[in-house]
Design a protein that fits this description.
The protein is built from twelve helices and nine strands. The protein has helices at about 15-30, 40-50, 60-65, 80-85, 105-110, 155-170, 180-205, 210-215, 225-230, 235-245, 245-270, 270-290, and strands at about 5-10, 30-35, 55, 70, 95-100, 120, 125, 145-150, 175. Bound molecules: NADP nicotinamide-adenine-dinucleotide phosphate.
């Protein structure tokens, strides 16, 4: 699609995801104007300083005024209050979407505040880094990544098609699914792995027989990849676990069973079981590379820093 998809996009919250959206929208000319706002004066000031958004307003109400697309890009636990604050100022016919990592909780927190005549299409770009804040965004974050949209049944197809065009314009592939299914898929692919990484790094932190300097020095042996994930934003991840409780607990239950099975195989010296298990997991990794969702370059494609 060429030319603007929306006239005025309002970005509520100016962290990693919203700032990446701004740079991607601007690069591809997907909106005539992008207005942004954030909770703290400090973030709004930074945004003005680095030219993040065409206009930065001090309040959510001012930001959504006359916008035909409003994007909620704040932590999941804050979405309801933000939706309530902006609701009276939403333009008729506008679309409200979000980028939250959990979907059912957002549908329940935001949905009741959306006025008649405004479309509500929750969304979730499956793209991120461990960095946050207004300076962390970049235009290519969504390139070749998935964005999942979870419109409620009965949502106007034209409104969904327009939002899809925006995400595709920013480089993403778009798929639609139901909110509960989204939450289960993400519990497997993202939420449980994050919890495991947090735990692993926490364990290393507790182990006094291995010194901190040894943990850091020899981290390339596997630990380093956990530390990157475990460096993710604490507020965002607290909210993910509080709002995707059931699916995460279900997957963690399964995880614990598998862990016990592996533990038993190690204890009993069942090499056959371990080999078969690792052969199966290796095939999953190959599938991810073949789907273009990661690189098989040595060391995960990391640029050598000389360190
Ligand atoms: P971020 O960089 O930490 O930015 C969060 C923004 O939300 C900031 O502008 C912050 O304002 C604002 N905010 C925080 N608490 C708030 C509150 N209680 N009320 C109003 N505004 C508040 O976060 P992000 O990584 O862009 O994440 C934003 C959303 O995207 C989250 O819902 C997250 O689940 C989702 N998401 C994140 C990733 C990822 O990897 N990071 C990936 C996909 C989706 P101040 O700066 O003024 O504090």
């Amino acid at each position: 699609m060429s030319g603007p998809v929306y006239d005025r996009v309002a970005l509520i919250g100016l962290g990693l995801i919203a700032s990446s959206m701004f740079w991607a929208i601007r690069k591809a000319g997907l909106a005539r104007e992008v207005v942004g706002t954030a909770r703290s004066a400090e973030t709004r000031e930074t945004a003005r300083e680095i030219g993040l958004c065409d206009r930065v307003t001090d309040t959510v109400a001012e930001a959504v005024e006359g916008a035909d697309l409003v994007v909620l890009a704040v932590p999941v636990g804050a979405m309801g209050a933000v939706a309530e604050a902006m609701a009276p100022r939403l333009a008729p016919g506008a679309t409200v979407t979000d980028v939250g990592s959990v979907k059912r909780a957002v549908v329940e927190a935001v949905g009741p505040h959306i006025p008649e005549g405004v479309h509500f299409i929750p969304g979730h770009p499956l793209a991120g880094t461990e960095h946050s804040g207004p300076r962390s965004g970049f235009a290519t974050l969504f390139d070749n990544r998935w964005c999942l949209l979870v419109p409620e049944p009965g949502t106007e197809p034209e409104a969904v098609a327009r939002l899809r065009a925006l995400w595709e314009g920013m480089g993403a592939h778009v798929e639609e699914m139901d909110a509960d299914h989204h939450d289960l898929v993400l519990a497997v692919t993202s939420h449980a792995p994050h919890l495991i990484a947090y735990t692993m790094v926490g364990v290393a932190d507790d182990l006094r027989r291995v010194t901190d300097s040894e943990v850091i020095k020899y981290s390339a042996a596997g630990f380093r990849d956990f530390t990157r994930i475990a460096a993710s934003d604490p507020t965002m991840w607290r909210d993910v676990f509080l709002t995707n409780k059931d699916a995460t607990l279900e997957i963690l239950g399964r995880f614990t069973e598998e862990l016990f099975a592996l533990q038993r195989a190690i204890r009993t010296g069942d090499g056959e079981m371990l080999h078969a298990y690792f052969t199966r997991t290796r095939a999953i990794r190959r599938g991810i590379i073949e789907a273009g969702q990661d690189t098989d370059a040595p060391d995960f494609g990391r640029v050598k820093t000389g360190a």
